[in-house]
Known about the structure:
This protein is an alpha+beta fold.
Amino acid sequence: MIDQLEPIYRASTFKLEKSNIAWQQALAGLPGAHALQSWVWGDFKSRWGWSAQRLALTVAENSWEPLAAAQVLKRNVPRLPYSILYVPKGPVLNYDDAPLRRKILAELEKLARREKAIFIKIDPEVVRYWGVEQERKSPRGAQFIAELQQRGWRFSAEQIQFRNTVELDLTRPENDLLAAMKSKTRYNIRLASRKGIVVRRGMLEDLPAIASIYQETAQRDGFTIRPLDYYLDAWSSLLAEGMALPLLAEFEGDLVAAVILIRYGDRVVYMYGASTARQRKRMPNHLLQWEAIRWAKAEGCKTYDFWGAPDQFVESDPLWGVWRFKDGFRGDAVWHIGAWDYPARPFWYWTYTKVLPRYLGYLRNRQEQSSG
Length: 372
């Protein structure tokens, strides 16, 4: 059946979608659509140096049933007549359909050339493996990687989003979810309740306080974050759209931890987390995660995405400690294919990805030596 439909795909083209409602309807009709492909996310990114194009692949020009969709973010390269393109957590399509996969890649390649892009980056949620101790391979992932390589796409050293994650199946009863957890995790959830940790839903006015402890978390754990206004813009935009829920953990009215949950379709993503050094022995993060899971389940969602896991599940990985915490809830490790680039202009791609980072590193080293 798929092979019979290939001529239809060959005749189809990308259509620029200018309606928020039509775009959301298009995504709702496609499998695996992600919040980063939503209209509100594209609008948010357009306030931070990008422009957004929403492209739907349709058989007919007036069709309302797209075969695939791709929100493409574009950023111009300073002092050059070129740009870079990025399809966050996309494109969105049925990845079991091999001819459709090839059609979409061909359309994205044409788009990159038309937009004078140095490269276009994609990072769809296509699975390579599930699990850690006993990996279960995904034939679809292996096939798609082979197609990407055959067409000249390259695995990217710059993984914008987390390559791997942990997912929890919410279709099981709540008692089963608790019973499946590691005993220490279950104990810490109950300990937090006994020790006075209270979890409540946040509101718009809580976002600056969450941003403040997010900054504290970054300084403590040694990761780089953007300006706080960036997060406040993202969170408030998603909250206004009904896609975000802040949850706050407090002890005697003092904010000690928080999460920002993003809901899209039947999935909830734990996209942002923050905590202080205060009251850590009361285990606020364990109770916070459990209440987030309970909320997602009560909302009728099927999957809780912990958003982020090690590239390699070994103790030397920087995210090993994060993995140990998330593994306590006994979700399934999911290995994705990661981000891939199509270098539409190979020389400039080599310059942008190899030469420029080395030059910037050289300047940083000189500055550090001078200040030293």
